[in-house]
Amino acid sequence: MQSLLRNMQFAFRLMGRTPGITAAAVLTLALGIGANSAIFSVINALLLKPFPYRDPAQLVSVEVRDKILDRSMNLVRYEMLRDRSRSFREMAVWANDQLNLTGNGEPVQIAVGRVSPNFFSLLGVVPQLGRDFTAEEGQPQGKPVVLLSDALWRARYHSDPGIVGQTVKLDATAATVIGVLPAHVTFPFVGKAEIWTPRYFEYSLMPTQRLRQGVGYLNLLARLRTGVTVLEANTELSALNEEYRRQNSTMPDADPQIALTGRPLRDVVAGELRSKVLVLMGAVGAILLIACGNVGSLLLSRAMARRREVAVRAALGAKRSTIVGQLLTESLLLALIAAAFGIALGWGATRALAIWGAAQMPQGVPVGIDWRVLLFTLTVSVLAGILFGMAPALQLSGIDINGTLREEGRGASSSAGRVKARDVLVVGQIALSLILLISAGLLVRSFVRLLAVDPGFEARNRLTMSLTLSTLKYSTPAQQTAFFDEVLRRAATVPGVRSAAISAAQPLTTVRVTPVLPQGQPDRPLAERPFVTIEAVSPGWFSTMHIPLRTGRPFDSNDQAQSTPVVIANESFVREYWPGLDPLAEHVVLGRRPVPAQVVGVAADVKNTGLEQETRPQLYLPFSQLPWSSMNLVLRTEGPPQTVIGAVRAQIAAIDPDQPLTDVQSVEDLVDAARAQPRFLLVLVGGFAGLALLLAIIGIYGVLSFSVAQRRQEFGVRMAMGADRENILAVVLKHGFVLAIIGVGLGLAAAFLLAKLMAGMLYQTPERDPLTFVAAPIALVLVALMASYLPARRATRVNPVDALR
After folding, report:
1. Distance (Å, rounded) from C-alpha 385 to C-alpha 445?
2. CB 285 within 8 A of CB 435
3. pTM, entire model
4. Of all helices (H) and strands (E), which one includes residue 597?
5. I need a labelling partner for 573 at 20 to 30 A (CA). Which of 119, 324, 465, 716 fits?
6. Of 284, 252, 387, which is closest to residue 34 (Cα–Cα)?
7. Which pLDDT value is given to residue 261?
8. How would you class 455 by CB atoms within 10 Å of its CB: exposed for 0-12, middle for 13-18, buried for 19 or more?
């Protein structure tokens, strides 16, 4: 212990004697450690931190899937699985809904979690106030009750401890508050539900009787029995899926292509983000290695000045292990000081990520610094200290004692070993920098292509907002149609509004799919018919969104509920089912509807599942023939869309003062949000690549400056023997060029091998894009030559007389 304390005291004195090297090393390491701490905090929140539930490893999401899309589960399938499965100890379901909350403030549309009454007990979650649901409350005849989220309880009810027993109104239905959920428990697999009800057998957008006809709206969560694996459970689920198909052949989800699979809850929450954050972790790991290379190079420089000191200590009897221990203690202290600053930088970066990247993370996954992040940061710092401290420690501990003591300080030159060690560090930095540059270049190419994607509609000067009607107040299709017709009439009169239309889905999204039987296709059972997306729109939708009709006519006021069923197909639908035919002569059967719908037009394709996805076959129906209680109002405005929001709110309040207006945003913002995650990744990886390039430039400059200083006498001799300044300049530039070429070669090979990791992050860009793999190395070599130029110029200014004196 006394030896360790002496080593630490000596290390602090040495840092004080070389403040420039110490500050540079601490800053460089702190940047690398801070970046690692910040990205690891995301990995910790997403992949490592246990969920606040009982035995979370036993929780499995059971999903209904086919080759095209994920589906929700219907009531009949859930009840069959609940009663027949033996692999799971318990099952519960949940569904997201939107209801209007009135009373105790302005009416608002609120996210509601519809759950089976055992949902919270399955998770092991106990309300902080009140009690959980009972089985009786989860029956149709049960008394309406709700649980509040902690956030809603605090914001709307001011943390009133007497909230239990009070009544709230959801869609004009009175419900008793029986409890408040704890603040620390979130449900990222559900979303941001603020009120929870056990009436899972109801859904605001669908009549109750339809829910037993195969309409999927539920999600199933199950707890494995002790000793049962997910693989074993999936085997049973496959058998139960076959049994369901035999017993319910008329259900729309009895398709042979539909599979039933269970996935660990952690995989469901992490989703596609898992691979992306691991790529980011690799990027910051490369940053830290580059930083270690720079610091190792700095310490090798300082080691030159300590060779005589170490030789004297060795001559006086100091063991090699003692010298190595002293030198590693210095490195570790440097790393720990950098860790303190790195944690501070990481905390700030984590806060920025939590705010700026909140939309990219699942709801309810808080990103922050906890003991795991601190332990990781400390471990990484210690390993970094050993890594960058090992080279100078081994160099100094293995010096030739007699040779070093005979050297004259001014004439001492660097050994080949030290030069090689520094060169190796720079080559590694260049290789790692190139990997990050290529990654950033691929993301840039991908994002440029994404920016060029035409969504198929005009986003400028368009405003969208959502209205969800109470199905008690507007219980019939006629009432719903009348309400939205009045909304359209009034919205069109608002100054600054050029036209108004409604649709069931927001632009770039889809809310409904249905099995179809296009005319000319062989008749098949309902379950085996292809599913396509359907969209209910009002007359004027296509002109308001500036979506061209390729042929036929738009919907008009003659397309009413009692008139001939009509549809407008998109181009993808026509290409898929009627290639080479006149679509206006065709009909299509929708779901269980007995009367085929006539195709009256063909609309240009629009992106209906996001900018990065291929357009799916889609059918448009008149809203009057497919009434829906939740619709989106779209306004085409003369100027900035935000200027008409207040007047539109007033018009809707005049129709129904209890009707809230939600999701108010411009269509341009919607399109921009679709590019948010690629842009987020681009900025992060691009920033890391820029930092890596800066550190690599510093490394090249440092190595060549060191080389010029050590070869000063050599350059003097060369110039005395007739070499001109251009020759000396070429020698130094060649040194930098060789290092860059070797580093680029290694980096290219590694990038080529690792390119597959980028595939899931790119849009219409090959992971081995030739332009990127050519441009990035050329750019890096040019930058390396620029970094080599200043030391090379300094070499040309050596005075031969002074160098040889």
Report:
1. 37
2. no
3. 0.82
4. strand 597-603
5. 465
6. 284
7. 93
8. buried
